[in-house]
Design a protein that fits this description.
Blueprint: E1 2-3, E2 15-20, H1 24-35, E3 40-46, H2 49-58, E4 63-66, H3 76-87, E5 92-97, H4 102-111, E6 115-118, H5 129-137, E7 142-143, H6 145-151, E8 160-162, E9 165-167, H7 176-183, H8 191-198, H9 202-216, H10 221-231, H11 235-243
Parallel strand pairs: 2-3, 2-4, 4-5, 5-6, 6-7
Antiparallel strand pairs: 1-3, 8-9
Helix pairs in contact: 2-3, 7-9, 7-11, 8-9
Length: about 240
């Protein structure tokens, strides 16, 4: 494990990052890119699961960048993700991989990953790595957009069961207030800020998200947001939010 000396950079707003990667060249590339960011600090880099979990348990880590395949273990990153989430909810996890198949995205979301991104992509196809790190550190999510759209093929959008009723695609299952709450996910706002914007309590926002998850059959707010965008269920709320800016 490579540990970094943190004595030189300790501003309060520094994003502390750990890297889980087995390819030495990619380790160097990621480290070089993030080292150039004044608001980021790499606190460790390893390809060993035990060392990674020891590091996360020993120091405050804001974001963990996890390769999916570690040596011959095609799910090494998922094992690392699950291990981190069992230890702490404070470390946000980005699966950073060349193995960008839909099943890997689904497994990553199910295990609690806040992000899933490609190592190699066309310019402009996704945010660059520093921006992804900042996005996750600030409470946001990012999943490869075309895979989210592909996920639609494996979800039954035509009939969503809610409160023992069947809702067809033509009918929006979300209430007006639920649409407004969900529309703020695109702005990566925390529940407390969403509550301020809508003049409701943070607990009420959390309750709305629970209802949304139950209706759409998902467990992640960003997936719910993407689903609602695709179906056109946020059109009115999005317009209202934009008009207030």
């Amino acid at each position: 494990m490579v540990s970094m000396n943190s004595s030189e950079r300790q501003p309060q707003n520094t994003i502390r990052v750990v890297i889980f990667e087995d390819n030495k060249m990619e380790q160097i590339g990621i480290r070089t890119e993030l080292d150039a960011q004044p608001d980021m600090e790499i606190v460790g880099m390893t390809s060993d699961l035990g060392e990674l979990l020891e590091l996360v348990g020993g120091v405050e880590v804001d974001v963990a960048i996890l390769d999916l395949k570690i040596y011959d273990n095609e799910k090494g990153g998922l094992e690392a993700l699950r291990g981190i989430k069992q230890m702490t909810a404070n470390t946000k996890c980005l699966i950073f991989t060349n193995y960008d198949e839909l099943p890997n995205l689904i497994l990553s979301i199910d295990a609690g990953a806040e992000g899933f991104a490609r190592k190699v992509c066309r310019p402009g196809q996704q945010p660059d790595l520093p921006e992804l790190v900042r996005m996750l550190a600030s409470g946001g999510h990012y999943y490869v957009s075309d895979l989210i759209l592909e996920m639609r093929k494996y979800l039954d959008f035509s009939q969503i069961e809610t409160n023992k009723k069947r809702v067809t695609r033509e009918k929006n299952p979300l209430t007006s207030q639920e649409q407004k709450v969900l529309s703020f996910v695109g702005n990566r706002l925390p529940d407390s800020e969403i509550g301020k914007q809508l003049t409701i309590s943070e607990n009420t926002v959390t309750a709305h998200f629970k209802n949304i998850f139950d209706k759409l059959g998902v467990r992640d707010r960003f997936v719910a947001y993407q689903m609602a965008l695709v179906e056109g269920w946020l059109e009115n709320s999005t317009s209202e939010n934009n008009s207030k800016k």
